[in-house]
Amino acid sequence: MTDRPLEGRTAVITGAGRGLGKAMAEGLAAQGARIALVDMEKDVLATAVADVEAAGGQGCALSVPADVTDTEKSQVAIDCTIDAFGGFDILINDAAMGPQFFTDNFVAHTPKFWEHDIDLWHRVLTVNAYGPQLMATIAAPHLVDRGWGRIINVTTSLDTMYLRGCGAYGPSKAALEANTRIMAQDLDGTGVTANVLIPGGPANTRMIPEATGFDRDELVQPEVMQPPVNWLCSTDADDISNMRFIAAMWDESLPREERIAAAGAPTAWAQIGSVAKRPGGWADAER
Ligand SMILES: NC(=O)c1ccc[n+]([C@@H]2O[C@H](COP(=O)([O-])OP(=O)(O)OC[C@H]3O[C@@H](n4cnc5c(N)ncnc54)[C@H](O)[C@@H]3O)[C@@H](O)[C@H]2O)c1
């Protein structure tokens, strides 16, 4: 097998200017993919593009400054990618505003929900839950037309979804997790899959401020995202949809099925939802 199995593929990665998004961009580029790096912070994109090109080669990376909550700019971001690379196959919704916008230290300082700035709450929900929906709405018809594609949404660990003191962060990620299940069901049979990928613990990015006191070496390192995202974007994962994967539990040394079982689970909380009563019962496709 070639050492650049993603040659010919193109990924749009939001939040690719730094942190986990940049690490995933570097990982996919090293496998031969071309990357459109979308981030609202133009300044960080120049360095990120240079780092991604160092991993994947000259011309493999495109800087796309855009706010993923802005309809017009998000459309332009997708159009620019298609103009530059002739199309795209993968959308990774990674851009987000983290808990640090609500508290300088979510370990020791957990403001009550009524103490948060309500406009900030709204903005974080918009960036983290609506942004991925907007990007996926624009991207999906293109991916479905091509008959092959990936939507990968970065949510968070279940216990972070209800972590106190972090305002809209957890609820916004719970919304994205649930929406991934809807996306996967709607895309079923199109050749396009929808999955969730999470680091599996606080990661060594600016989202986990120094004030938390965590030993930075003990945090999940951003590169941990690379093996599972590379695999999710490979043809070996063509039959994998509606799943969530924990990057820190992804063990490349295991055989495929064991690896999937160790790090994967259904998206959202399907097993809890299935106990709800429904007149006439549930069809499998509705789960
Ligand atoms: N760091 C962690 O501990 C951790 C844990 C679980 C999940 N996650 C998730 O992983 C993803 C990446 O997190 P990270 O730690 O790398 O964060 P980060 O803050 O280092 O990077 C996020 C990037 O998103 C960009 N961004 C924010 N809002 C945007 C918008 N409206 N439009 C375009 N770009 C925007 C930022 O400019 C930034 O470059 C996020 O979805 C986060 O919720 C992180």
Question: Could you name the key traits of this structure?
Answer:
287 residues; alpha/beta; eight-stranded mixed sheet; 14% strand; globular; binds nicotinamide-adenine-dinucleotide
Unreliable runs: none
- What string, H for helix and E for strand, traces the elements in order? EHEHEHEHEHHEHEHEH
- Taking strands numbered 1, 2, ... along the chain, how are they ordered across the largest sheet? 3-2-1-4-5-6-7-8
Shape type: globular
List the ligand species. nicotinamide-adenine-dinucleotide
Helix and strand composition category: alpha/beta
CATH secondary-structure class? Alpha Beta
Biggest β-sheet description: 8 strands, mixed
Terminal CA distance reads 37 Å
What is the averaged pLDDT score? 96
Tally of strands: 8
Rg (C-alpha, Å): 18 Å
DSSP helix count? Answer: 9
State the share of residues found in helices, binned by percent.
Answer: 25-40%
Quickly give the CATH architecture.
3-Layer(aba) Sandwich
- CATH topology descriptor: Rossmann fold
Structure, described:
The chain is an alpha/beta fold and 287 residues long. The protein has a single domain (10-286), classed as NAD(P)-binding Rossmann-like Domain (Rossmann fold, 3-Layer(aba) Sandwich), CATH 3.40.50. 39% of the residues lie in helices and 14% in strands. An 8-stranded mixed beta sheet has the order 3-2-1-4-5-6-7-8, sandwiched between helices. Helix 1 (19-30) packs parallel to helix 2 (42-56) and helix 4 runs parallel beside helix 6 (169-187). The protein binds nicotinamide-adenine-dinucleotide. Nicotinamide-adenine-dinucleotide is lined by residues 14-15, 17-21, 39-41, 44, 67-69, 94-98, 127, 131, 154, 156, 198-199, 202-203, 205-208.
